[in-house]
Amino acid sequence: MSVLVTGATGMFGGLITEKLSQAGVPVLAMSRSESRAAGLTGGSVTGVVADMDKPETFKSALEQADRIFLVSPMHPDLGARECAIIEQATKAGVHQIVKLYGSVDHDGDPLDRQHRMSIDALKDCGVPWCLVSPQTVTDSHILAQLETIRSERRLYACAGEGRMGMVTADNCAEVGAFVLQEAAERFAGRDLQITGPEAITYAQMAQQLTSALGVTIEYIDMTEEELTQAVVEAGMPEEDIELQILCHFRQIRNGKAELVTDTYQEIIGRSAASVHDWACANQGILE
């Protein structure tokens, strides 16, 4: 068995590649860059070059793969990109497609519509498929603010009092790697919604960081306009902010991220990590 992992240089793709490699599973790790693909090669991992905007470049890798882990950057063309890859994978005869989705309720917003295009294609493709759906990802929210945590001892967001079932990327990758090594039929058609042990507010996240680090971390709640201005000043293109930041905080603020499940416990057999657990394990980079 071999698994093609798209986006293998990203957070989720990289973790899935690592966990499959540790289990001795042959992995085709995708990158758009020849040099980065070469850097991925080692052990049971072979770096391959492909471009999501050129689905024909996936042909060779898909012909070698039995399964595919599909993860894409948040982009206005996410749906079209993934649909084209699903079509290519189906033609190549892959045995399973596992797609990274999400369990925050985006309620039909532009990002959700892109993902829904891809999910509809999965439902029609005839290949066993499964969704791995993280709730609010601890790593993404904390690492994005690493400098302000270190220098100001502050977290900034526009999440209000909204609660989040925060889950670590590592816990989600454990589930994804497990599913990719099981019989494809076992999880076929399921949306595996992975959350942490409880739903917490941003202020409570700051409290858990405070407890883990032994220094006070303060949460500063902002308006969308204030956060947009700050992010633009930090260098992010304004056109990227809605899909990559604002739509997520909006749903948290509106109570759409409160889901807590026992899916991780069901599949892996132990409790999911809390924000406090994550901060203790990553204390060195936060100080």
Q: What is the helix tally?
A: 14
Strand neighbour order, sheet with most strands: 3-2-1-4-5-6-8
SS-based class: alpha/beta
End-to-end separation? 42 Å
Measured as a percent range, the helix fraction is: 40-55%
The whole-angstrom Rg is: 19 Å
Q: Can you write the helix and strand succession as a string?
A: EHEHEHEHEHEHHEHEHEHHHHH
Query: Quick one: biggest sheet?
Result: 7 strands, parallel
Tell me, rounded to a whole number, the average pLDDT. Answer: 95
What is the β-strand count? 9
* Poorly predicted sequence stretches spanning 5 or more consecutive residues: none
How would you sum up the global shape? globular
Beta content comes to 5-15%
Can you characterise this structure?
By secondary structure, the chain is an alpha/beta fold. It is built from 14 helices and nine strands. The strands form two sheets. It has a seven-stranded parallel sheet, with helices on both faces. The chain has a two-stranded parallel sheet with strand order 7-9. Helix 1 (11-22) crosses helix 8 (169-181) and helix 4 (78-92) packs parallel to helix 5. The longest helix has 16 residues, at 110-125. The N and C termini lie far apart (42 Å). The mean pLDDT is 95.
Task: Supply database-style keywords.
two-stranded parallel ribbon, alpha/beta, 287 residues
List the helices and strands and how they pair.
Layout: E1 3-5, H1 11-22, E2 27-31, H2 34-40, E3 45-49, H3 59-64, E4 67-70, H4 78-92, E5 96-100, H5 110-125, E6 129-134, H6 138-143, H7 146-151, E7 154-157, H8 169-181, E8 191-194, H9 202-213, E9 218-221, H10 224-233, H11 238-253, H12 263-268, H13 275-281, H14 283-286
Parallel strand pairs: 1-2, 1-4, 2-3, 4-5, 5-6, 6-8, 7-9
Helix pairs in contact: 1-8, 4-5, 9-13, 10-11
